[in-house]
Amino acid sequence: MNYDYSYSGPMNSGTAAAFGVGMLIYWVIMMAVCVAMIIALWKVYEKAGRPGWGAIIPFYNYYLLFDIAWGKGILFLLMLVPCVNVVVYIICMIKLAQAFGKSVGFGIGLAFLSPIFLLILGFGDAQYIGVTTQE
Q1: Is residue 98 part of a domain?
Q2: Model pLDDT for residues 63-89, shown as the tens digit of each residue
Q3: How many domains does the chain have?
Q4: What predicted TM-score, i.e. pTM, was given to this entire model?
Q5: Which of 21, 52, 77, 111 could form a disulfide with 42, with the two C-beta atoms 3.0–4.6 Å apart?
Q6: Could you give the 3-state DSSP secondary structure of residue 131?
């Protein structure tokens, strides 16, 4: 008996090429977004008087972000708790916006459209005013 195990499904060479080009475009866009985030965080950290290079160091960048937004960098450890991290991240973005004199709406924008709003925060005219306390 002679069995043929080759697959001749719906993907031909044209489909495979289109898929490959699509994946290349996807990775180029994702790399551009990552570079934009690094540049934006660098500028935000410098505006807040922190070292800009901290944006490229894993974990330290979150420490700096929480230090700018909350005044206590060690709270970044809450980002390691599943499910809690989503809520903490949104609150952190709102506090970051308030630390730069922006509204809660801007903070929501920071949480859900981070690359765009961080670029606005980093390259805009916003000045770091410090951690706001609710009393």
Answers
A1: yes
A2: 999 999 998 888 889 999 999 999 999
A3: 1
A4: 0.81
A5: 52
A6: coil
